[in-house]
Amino acid sequence: DAGVIQSPRHEVTEMGQEVTLRCKPISGHNSLFWYRQTMMRGLELLIYFNNNVPIDDSGMPEDRFSAKMPNASFSTLKIQPSEPRDSAVYFCASTTSANEQFFGPGTRLTVL
Amino acid sequence: LAKTTQPISMDSYEGQEVNITCSHNNIATNDYITWYQQFPSQGPRFIIQGYKTKVTNEVASLFIPADRKSSTLSLPRVSLSDTAVYYCPLSNNFNKFYFGSGTKLNVKP
Q1: A59 vs B: CB within 8 A
Q2: Listing from the earlier edge strand, what are the strands of the sheet with A74-79?
């Protein structure tokens, strides 16, 4: 298996633009997580899905952020409009149990 | 979900045993203690998980006292390649993890 796949790996955009981050979880995994990592706040859980259904989005910073999981093999995290303070590394992870999450390589987002 | 507290950083030398502690005073009955390792420009990677007492695998040991309010990750004979950030998130049946800022381990030659 190729592991969790994220795209793009790097994204540079201007303030006000829409940004869409993509994630393909490991085949067979039924839970998917989106995290954000910054120097100031560390690694924060934004939202997680179980069997394609959003279970907890309490970590989503504000209405500018939205996440979808239309099927078991694909998820998106959208920021609209983007702001400089959204600059961070965004990770996607998937798992089948409470034991071990498998993380993707991350998307480094820079909002100018 | 209970939060965890770790030292911000630690230094060690090659060949030494390193023990990294994690405090989780508000751990819930159904929380498991999990340790992850993260290298620069990579996502975190699972190291070990436990509920109580001691757990050992090929790369580390995890010590958990009876009250479960803390845990210690033990890395035997570290090498330069063990330089990384180490996290101790708690997880429960709903798979939620709180990672925090972790402990940056710097292994020196």
Answers
A1: no
A2: A5-7, A19-24, A74-79, A65-71
Return per-residue pLDDT of chain A as tens, 112 residues: 689 999 999 999 999 999 999 999 999 999 999 999 998 888 999 999 999 999 989 889 889 999 999 999 999 999 999 999 999 999 999 998 767 899 999 999 999 9
Q: Does B63 touch chain A (CB under 8 A)?
A: no
Judge: A106–B92 Cβ closer than 8 Å, yes or no: no
Q: How many whole angstroms separate alpha carbon B59 and alpha carbon B39?
A: 16
CA distance A104 to A102: 7
Which pair of tokens denotes residue B28? 């819930």
What the block records as the tokens of B78 is 């570290």
Closest residue on chain B to A9 (Cα): B41
